[in-house]
TrEMBL record:
One Gene Ontology MF term: glutamine synthetase activity
Descriptive protein name: Glutamine synthetase
Record's keyword annotation contains Transferase: no
Domain GS catalytic: 109-222
Organism, scientific name: Thermocrispum agreste
SMART domains xref list: Gln-synt_C
Family the UniProt entry places it in: Belongs to the glutamine synthetase family.
GO biological process, one term: glutamine biosynthetic process
Keywords: Ligase
Organism superkingdom: Bacteria
Length: 222
């Protein structure tokens, strides 16, 4: 597929699909399988759009009837190939999902957003958005914030987290996520990161990639 050439040194490609809660689901394939996957996509169970964040099966879903099973869908690479800087050799790509007839799935978050953006474009609008994303850094032993007091915008307090936040900012930027700034927020262990505004779909893609990335990078640092 044109524009889908793997960077030199790639050994693993991660095909990522955001579920209804913004959690990345997907599969990993060896680089040797990439030419076929890039052209044809890869099968995944459509149940990812109907279960909870803990993969609990709901029996009240209006779109998928559990009594009939969950048919496979095709995850087709559609985003940029993004080398994963904190895991050398890995490349991640976002996918759109289609049913067995090649139609977009109506419950896919990316498809829902695409339809909204299409309506906005028909009205003469271009939608550009930015995000202020927040998370907590917790002590790996206690599973609680290291401090109990609040130091919002505190540079000294932020410096205590720089062994994690410094590499995190660099990795995020190298991953293609335009970080503008970060700071401590108004709760113990709370961190805010500002993502520069851009075209709405790209910014939404960056948001789900950000959520996954900060978890992985934080875990690498304990």
């Amino acid at each position: 597929m044109q524009g889908m050439q793997l960077p030199e040194g790639t050994d693993t490609v991660e095909l990522a699909v955001p579920d209804a809660f913004g959690i990345l689901r997907g599969k990993r394939v060896p680089a040797s399988a990439w030419p076929h996957v890039a052209e044809n996509g890869i099968h995944m169970a459509s149940v990812i759009y109907t279960w909870t964040p803990r993969c609990e099966i709901r029996d009240d879903d209006e779109w998928l009837d559990p009594s009939k099973g969950w048919p496979d869908m095709q995850a087709v690479p559609t985003g940029d190939l993004r080398p994963v800087p904190w895991r050398p050799g890995a490349v991640m790509v976002l996918c759109e999902t289609k049913d067995e007839d090649g139609q977009q799935l109506p419950v896919s978050p990316r498809d829902v957003l695409a339809k909204v953006l299409g309506k906005a474009a028909a009205m003469g609008f271009e939608v550009r958005i930015g995000f202020e994303l927040e998370f907590y850094l917790l002590d790996p032993v206690t599973k609680r914030p290291k401090h109990r007091d609040i130091q919002c915008y505190g540079l000294a307090r932020g410096a205590e987290y720089e062994d994690v936040l410094g590499p995190m900012r660099k990795h995020l930027v190298d991953f293609g996520i335009p970080v503008e700034a970060c700071n401590t927020e108004y709760a113990p262990g709370q961190i805010e990161v500002n993502i520069r505004y851009d075209e709405a779909m790209r910014t939404a893609d960056n948001a789900v990639l950000f959520r996954n990335a900060v978890k992985e990078i934080a875990q690498q640092h304990g």
